[in-house]
Amino acid sequence: MGMAVRDGTVAAFVPGVIAPEPVDEVGAGDTAVAALAAATRAGYAPVEAAGFANLAAAVTVSKVGQTGTASREEITALAEQARYRSIP
Question: How far is Cα of residue 17 from the mean position of the Cα atoms in its chain?
């Protein structure tokens, strides 16, 4: 789906990642929030953190029957080949 991000005077929409099929949406939101918090704490700018969180959620939903797991290596691999949804 994507994320809307606002930081002071900057507002942006970060498009969602099209996850490889099949998908299992359980845990996507939890993963996105955890990745957003981790990326923010690591010093990512808000838009970069949202992009990282979207990638982490896409990794998680591609693991049918397994929730909340996305390693840095999996996120990086998906980032290299990710396709993104259009901005609404």
Answer: 7
Kindly tell me if the per-residue pLDDT of 87 is higher than 70: no
Distance, CA of 9 to CA of 21 (rounded, Å): 37
With contact defined as beta carbons under 8 Å apart, do 78 and 16 qualify?
Answer: no
30 is a catalytic site residue: yes
DSSP E strand stretches across the chain: 2-7, 10-15
Q: Which among 11, 30, 71, 76 is annotated as catalytic? A: 30
Give ∠ CA 55-68-62 in degrees, rounded to 5: 55
CA-based R_g, the chain, Å: 12
- Predicted TM-score (pTM) of the model is 0.88
